[in-house]
Amino acid sequence: MQLPILETNLATIAAHATALEQENIDFVAHLKELNAEEIDQTVYMLDQQITQKIDCTQCGNCCKTLMIGLNEKEANHAADHLGISRNTFDEKYVEKSLSGKMLMSSIPCHFLADNKCTIYDNRFAGCREFPALHLPEVQKRLFTIFMHYDRCPIIFNVMESLKIAVRFNQHQ
Prior knowledge:
By secondary structure, the chain is mostly helical. The protein has two domains: 10-62 and 131-171, no CATH class; 67-129, no CATH class. The protein is built from nine helices and five strands. The chain has helices at 10-19, 21-32, 36-51, 61-65, 72-82, 86-93, 125-129, 142-147, 153-165; strands at residues 69-70, 94-96, 102-104, 112-113, 116-117. The longest helix is centred in the first third of the chain and has 16 residues, at 36-51.
């Protein structure tokens, strides 16, 4: 499939997201009617093609706008990597809920500098997986995917290309 020209300008993406809100609601409903394995395969293929053409360090919007979760093992590993105690790491970087869930205590992420992760090789699982278009069961994650459609050029371009791949506009 020939990809359309990729959009990477965040302001343009946000404007399109607003303008296409109803279309995307209809698109999500349409995707839920299609074969799940075929959707997964198509999204995976589009993700492979598009991700290699987009330089995340030109954007960094995920690190600038998302709440980043981590677990005990990741916190221990990051503290070790930084050469600080776990208590110091928690005091400087972590916010814990009453139930024990941990989040980075700052948006943007403490470890973002010049649109690059300063602990990239030791980044947290959620950071490694984002935007998670390589993972199966896309149909079960459409709400989350479209929650980030306006902030991530990869998600935006994969979803717009998916509309073409499944001939969505021909169904309207």
